[in-house]
Amino acid sequence: MLPATPRPVRVKTVPAITLAGPVMDGAGGGGTTTVTEKLLPWSLVTPATRVSDAVRTCWPGARLIVSDQVVPTQRSPVPAIDSKAVHWLDSGVGVEIGPVAVKLSGSINGFYVHDNGDSPTANRVVVGGLATVGSDSTSIRSGLLPSFLEVEITTKQGGWDVGAHIAFYPGIDSVTGVGGANSPGSPTAFSTAGIDVRRNYLTVGHSDFGELKIGRDIGLFGADAVLNDMTLLGVGTAAANAAPSNASLGRVGLGYIYTDFLPQITYTTPAWRGVRASVGVFQPLVTTGGSEVNSAPGFQANLAVDHKFSSLSTHLWFDYVTQQHKSVVGMPDYTSDGFDDGVKLTYGPAELLGYYYHGSGLGTTGLFILSTDAVGRKRDSDGYYVQVTYTLFTKLTLGASYGKSHLSLAPGEIASNLLDTNSSTVGQLRYALTRWMSLVGEYTHTWSTAHNGNEASSDALAVGGIVFF
Q1: Contact 349, 390 (CB under 8 A)
Q2: Which domains does the chain have, with CATH numbers?
């Protein structure tokens, strides 16, 4: 609380870079320099500003430090700055409590989805296919991005930026709970949605050091592919629409392998002329359907380059992933590896994106799914997608994309109804009703083909809305 009557606060001006005394704005250091003193009355300090900000306003051109060692009058000391003072953050939903910022962010979405699949016949069976086969279905469901609420607590200590982050991702549909929050849907009475705690990590960083992340967060390989996919704001391929789980597929498995959220220790360099690199060790994943005890972590790396040429903005990236797999049931050990690259060009209201990946023993749709045959031989996989969007009147965005994922047979493997390709075409309209709220309409056509010639297709229409805060 501010004193009832104005009291002078003695402050120091330091015309050099080296500072002396306690610093309010986070600068630091010691040393000697020529120092002059002036008095600032408390009446110039408002509850919404730090003392150093108020001083800087009325004495421009100086680096100012409030001295907590000086007595303003001989009768009583200067009251200390309240470390529990609350300020609104400049952005986001949150507050700054003394030196600590607490921020909430999140999203909620929901869509009416009608999915029309092929009738179930023998020649439409594709193992690993993503096109719907079966009766038409209608659902009210989450899109590719489930609802989420993220809590971020950040501060600066000893010159380091320190943060704690945790996020909860519930869908709007009920699930069985067998196998986790993203288990199969359960549209029955007294069921409930799953809560996917997919992000849970700490960060520590410095402008000269970069940032170290420890915990569970999105991976490096394939992250840009999903984060730049327009169906992240929609539905895309409406997998299991009759009994939806926490999320739809979007373009996952139809142009890229899902990056996933993984336990990791990742280091990211400071940006240098738009170039930034990340490298991390990751919890090793077991081949789907396999039995493994893996003695080495997985490794992932990312290189990103951002640049602006007049009105053209470019974002380029390259990722790499590798992991060893050690079987405990007599199957051969193998090493998975893969890479991807992409480019996004933005020119005014127009945006164009192209992406490609290739892997050996990497699988399809998700990491290490169908990555080997029945006797442990590796399968190769690759895929790509292209996407274009254009925004009219700053409100209405038109988007179209096409993508395909391909899974090869292992050497010596006999052709069967195993997946050959999954592909889809998506058209999307998105209207920004407010700064937070967007309305979305979408059409998706999905194809799946097998190595023995089987094929299936489906069509989905989705209409709904999404809010970000």
Answers
A1: yes
A2: 8-82 (no CATH), 93-468 (2.40.160.10)
Q: Three-state SS string across 297-364, please?
A: CEEEEEEEEEEEECCEEEEEEEEEEEEEECECCCCCCEEEEEEEEEEEEEECCEEEEEEEEEEECCCC
CA 395, 399, 403: angle at the middle one, nearest 5?
155
Q: What are phi and psi of 361, to 5 degrees?
A: 70, 20
Distances (CA, A) of 9 to 76, 81, 118, 308: 12, 12, 78, 46
Q: Which of 465, 468, 426 is nearest to 447 (CA)?
A: 426
Tokens linked to 355? 């992406």
The reported pTM is 0.81
How many Cβ atoms are within 10 Å of 242's Cβ, its own excluded? Answer: 16
Torsion from C-alpha of 176, 177, 179, 181, nearest 10 degrees: 120
Q: Residues 90, 98: contact at Cβ < 8 Å?
A: no
Consecutive 10-residue runs of the chain (469 residues): their mean pLDDT?
41 35 36 37 37 36 37 43 64 84 95 97 97 96 96 96 97 88 89 92 96 98 98 96 95 98 98 97 94 94 96 97 93 96 98 98 97 95 98 97 98 97 98 97 98 98 97
